[in-house]
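ABC transporter permease, pasting as requested.
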Amino acid sequence: MQVFNLYFKLLKSVAPALIIYAVIFVILIFIISTDQAQNITHFEETKIDTALVNYDEDSIFSKNLINYLSNYCNFKDYGDDEDNLADALFFRQVEYILTIPYDFGEDFYYGKDVAVEKRAIPDGVYNSSVDHAINNYLNTARNYLRNLPNISEEELVSYVNQDMQEKTEVTIANFEKQDNNFSFYNRYFNTASYIILSSCLIGVGMIMLTFHNVHILRRNMVTPMTHKDMNLQLIGGNLIFVLTHDILFALFGFIINDDKSVTGNLILFWLNMIVYSISALSISYFMAVVIKNKQVNDIMAYVLPLGFSFISGAFIPQFILGDSVLKLASFTPVYWFVKGNDTIALLTDFNGNFLSKIYAYMLIQVGFAAAIFSLSLVVSKNRKLNN
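Structure tokens follow.
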């Protein structure tokens, strides 16, 4: 067990850096917890906070559509600046952005293929009610235009208003509490992805870098210990380090959350974290094989996790990021870990399509880990032959 004991002796040398990352994580989590506490009362009203951009202010039809939607929306004016609108959606000042394009009412009246523009927080609690209201209003108006071709715009608005008199009140029973709990875990584990990868690069990466030093490799080649035994002890040390890390993350999140119930969603969050940790371990191992300098490894331990987290949605929700950024991020396991967490937070039916998606995201992470480990073994073997 010489290698195994040496592993944890080396781990003590990077303990200060790991403690610094732990403190950073605690600070981030308490910021998230405070934000969660402030947002608990944000969804008291049935109406959804909506940013309205109306480029068709003179249209009777558009005005009446907005008046009808006011039963479902609490309209707010943020102008038409894209940056202001994106910030409002990102900071949850609104959950929905509705844009009525130029000449929408006139084009709709004359049968052109037009539509309002909608942006919303994905799978928001009330989004479907607003979408349904818009579709209901426009489909009703189209039926009148199709069956009464000579109807005036004023008559169209009048007939549609009569049909819209009956309203359905939308209520959500006992869901808000559940959503808040899963929303916390969602952000908690997304943030943890940054710390897990950083800790693996600093802890596991530095240890493996030491063992892959050319001088140590040459010494190990002439020792009585077989290469297989040495690798098994290193694998055991790495797994203990990662699993200990995961257990601490799971316990800390469970302790600071108000709800102490262990649900199927929480178990899936834990499982997804373990799978991601294996991927983080594979990246750390690969970096230790490729990089020969500890200073370079330190730089990568800061830069790589931060870059992966920003483009993959760990810090910024994925629906805010552009398609090109997400395509780039899809080549990292962090993206699929975050995507899995986002899906777990929405899971209510454990026999449905969502569950199969979650397992698929986990399998993709396992695929990343297997591919990176395989590549690491090839590179490591070539280095040994060259040395």
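Note for the archive: The chain has two domains: 2-38+176-386, 47-163.
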